[in-house]
Amino acid sequence: MADVGVDETLLKSVAERVADEAAELVHEAWTGMNAGREVRVDTKSADTDVVTAVDHESERLVRARLAELRPDDAVLGEEGGGSAGDGVTWVVDPIDGTVNFLYGLPWFAVSVAAQVGGVSVAGAVAEPVSGRRWSAARGQGAFLDGRPLRVNAPDRLDLTLVGTGFAYKVERRTKQARFVAELATRVRDVRRNGAASLDLCAVAAGWLDAYVEHGLGHWDWAAGALIAAEAGALVSLPGEDAGLGPDATFAVAPSIAAPLRQALIESGAGAI
């Protein structure tokens, strides 16, 4: 359990400020790239798992600003690594949705979350292109540009819109494709948008009724899962629901949680 003495309001403010500044940097780079400026691209776990120079620049900015604003805190970033500290640890995804970024698809974000004892207590997800900013603090609700968020309340499985995503390695993608093919026969439809943090925020806003994905990194869900939960979603993180698989992330409107979870299991979620 996270330390109840942490000032969640202050941490949320820091997350918003830093995420917004990094989003400005990313937006400028994205605009330049679309105008023909070259961006260096490398690969990580697979040829389809890419990282750009802009990812690194964004994370360096976040780390520098956190060092100024919260010098005693630890930082764990997707590109720069790090480890959890004894107090507050900032979990950072400098560009969530890098492939979308590279293709010019404007569905990507900067995600910054504050955790204590591995539990998210504040976070912000900033969209460079739209300028939207999602944020939440533990026990204080979730917001989109200051507007309170609340999940949907679907009452039928066949009218439930579900978001998901796919792994980079072909072997796992094959299993996920079979899973989605089966799930699609049970729900209204399935969406694959390419940025986990924003899919979790979409659940918070009622743009999706649920979201499930296997194999996410810590930085993928740290802010978005808190935002979804503070908007009323039921959330299970990797390792919390063996029936869905050991590394499944699941966020769902409470009204449909039980039948959808069963449908996910029957569709093969636990075998991915």
UniProtKB/TrEMBL annotation:
Its cofactor is Mg(2+). Mg(2+) 1 binds at E78, I95, D96. It holds the Pfam family Inositol_P. The keyword Membrane does not apply. Mg(2+) 2 binds at D93, D220. It catalyses: a myo-inositol phosphate + H2O = myo-inositol + phosphate; L-histidinol phosphate + H2O = L-histidinol + phosphate. InterPro entries: IMPase, Inositol_monoP_metal-BS, Inositol_monophosphatase-like, Inositol_monophosphatase_CS. It is an enzyme of class 3 (hydrolase). Keywords: Hydrolase, Magnesium, Metal-binding. GO terms for biological process: inositol metabolic process; phosphatidylinositol phosphate biosynthetic process; signal transduction. Its EC number is 3.1.3.25. GO terms for molecular function: histidinol-phosphatase activity; inositol monophosphate 1-phosphatase activity; metal ion binding. Belongs to the inositol monophosphatase superfamily. Catalyzes the dephosphorylation of histidinol-phosphate to histidinol, the direct precursor of histidine. This is Inositol-1-monophosphatase.
